[in-house]
């Protein structure tokens, strides 16, 4: 009987410690910290080619109201193998995540990326409009 | 578990501590050298072993002076290395060096002749010592022959001393790469601009018209308002990427290209860079299914991965130099045969 009491005690304590930790540091499903910030925008955008060198021919035009990113790329860019890089406001994250090369070759159907705020309450979907230098 | 078991825990930790303390204080004793003929060997060259290049070894032999002196050293290669031909430079074939080296105050390796020039016969290189010597390090240069391509090669180093002792040291097996290499091709705009991966050679328009099935790429230089510069473009690429180019008849192959940066291969770039090597596995795992058929804006020290239209070859082209004024470039190629 005494043995069961000790086990119960340990289990209870573990649960208590765990729940207290969770309260102080809330994290999301990716293990990222959820904060109080509600800001939600893209501050910069970079586009790298297959050789990890920039393919931007000029600076991106980011419209945080219309939620668009307009980017002109160099003539002869391999649009099927690009690596986009988003600079986001503090604590925000991107959905979907960028895990490899992205195919931007379908210029008529621009890619869309959603920025999620630090408090995970605000979501803004940006459209990445690529044009090729002529 | 009862309480009395817990009383053993401090005892356990105490014994662990005691053990650690004991090992720390163990006395050091100078090792006793072996009183016999000994040898050791290291491989000095790095990277993939390519046909036509050397694999270099340093072979050390020593015997106590009281026991005798060194008589001879030899190396047996499982596949005989490239042999010297008439007109070749003395050091252009497989050989076991006849000198030992010391490093002088300026950091220069100074040779000291200790034996006869090695004789090569059926994969065996022998150096006979002509000076009384007890310790020597000889270098062995194995020039990889065509017969070894894609195979493995092993080496047996051995030495004999005047008291009749013999020692042996096995090295390898080492895999010899399947790939080929061609250095310093000079493509020029509108002239020697047709590149054949199959031949690893450049052709002009007339020669290209005679070998249309071999032309994989066109080199061109254009100074336009958009990024273009130095480019490698497949003959079948859209005409936008071949401005002002009139292709010879039947030159129409579609080659895939993928730009690369920071792949400054040691063999292709020369002795300027250290330890980056393009090797057979790099070609084997390459995925070029979504690659385009053009690469524009090529810069010095950049590179391009290539897959020929028939899927027979993959290659890596390194851009050694670009010359805007001369409208030319200097390129080096490593090529891997897939089929």
From TrEMBL, chain A:
Signal peptide: 1-19
Species in which this protein is naturally found: Chitinophaga flava
Superkingdom of this protein's organism: Bacteria
Keywords: Signal
Protein name: DUF4625 domain-containing protein
Automatic annotation (TrEMBL), chain B:
Keywords: Signal
Keyword match rRNA-binding: no
Signal sequence interval, chain numbering: 1-20
PROSITE patterns cross-referenced by the UniProt entry: PROKAR_LIPOPROTEIN
Domain DUF4466: 26-337
Name of the featured protein: DUF4466 domain-containing protein
Pfam families from the UniProt entry: DUF4466
Domain of life of the source: Bacteria
């Amino acid at each position: 009987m005494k043995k069961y009491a000790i086990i119960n005690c340990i289990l209870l304590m573990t649960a208590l410690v765990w729940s207290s930790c969770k309260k102080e540091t809330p994290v999301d499903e990716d293990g990222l910290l959820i904060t109080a910030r509600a800001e939600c925008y893209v501050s910069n955008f970079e586009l790298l080619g297959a050789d990890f060198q920039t393919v931007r021919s000029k600076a991106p035009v980011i419209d945080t109201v219309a939620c668009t990113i307009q980017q002109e790329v160099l003539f002869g860019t391999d649009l099927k193998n690009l690596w986009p890089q988003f600079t986001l406001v503090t604590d925000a994250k991107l959905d979907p995540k960028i895990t490899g090369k992205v195919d931007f070759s379908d210029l008529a159907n621009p890619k869309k990326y959603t920025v999620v705020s630090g408090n995970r309450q605000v979501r803004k979907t940006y459209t990445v409009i690529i044009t090729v230098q002529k | 578990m009862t309480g009395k078991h817990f009383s053993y825990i401090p005892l356990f930790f105490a014994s662990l501590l005691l053990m650690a303390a004991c090992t720390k204080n163990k006395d050091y004793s100078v090792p006793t050298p072996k009183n016999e003929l000994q040898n050791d060997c290291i491989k000095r060259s790095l990277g993939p072993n390519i046909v036509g290049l050397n694999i270099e070894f340093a072979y050390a032999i020593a015997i106590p002076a009281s026991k005798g002196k060194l008589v001879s050293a030899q190396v047996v290669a499982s596949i005989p290395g490239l042999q010297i031909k008439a007109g070749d430079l003395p050091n252009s074939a497989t050989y076991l060096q006849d000198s030992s080296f010391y490093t002088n105050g300026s950091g220069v390796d100074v040779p000291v002749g200790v034996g006869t020039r090695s004789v090569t016969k059926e994969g065996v290189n022998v150096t006979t010592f002509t000076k009384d010597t007890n310790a020597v390090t000889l270098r062995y240069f194995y020039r990889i022959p065509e017969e070894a391509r894609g195979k493995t090669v092993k080496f047996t180093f051995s030495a004999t001393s005047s008291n009749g002792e013999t020692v042996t040291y096995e090295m390898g097996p080492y895999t010899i790469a399947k790939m080929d290499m061609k250095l310093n091709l000079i493509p020029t705009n509108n002239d020697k601009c047709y590149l054949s991966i199959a031949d690893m050679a450049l052709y002009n328009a007339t020669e290209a018209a005679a070998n249309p099935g071999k032309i994989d790429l066109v080199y061109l230089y254009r100074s336009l308002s958009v990024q273009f510069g130095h480019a490698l473009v497949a003959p079948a690429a859209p005409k936008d990427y071949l401005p002002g180019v009139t292709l010879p008849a039947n030159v129409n192959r579609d080659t895939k290209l993928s730009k690369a940066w920071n792949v400054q291969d040691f063999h292709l770039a020369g002795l300027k860079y250290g330890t980056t090597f393009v090797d057979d596995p790099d070609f084997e795992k390459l995925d070029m299914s979504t690659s385009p058929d053009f690469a524009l804006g090529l810069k010095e020290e950049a590179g391009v991965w290539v897959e020929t239209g028939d899927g027979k070859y993959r290659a890596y082209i390194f851009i050694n130099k670009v010359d805007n004024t001369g409208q030319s470039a200097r390129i080096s190629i490593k090529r891997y045969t897939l089929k």
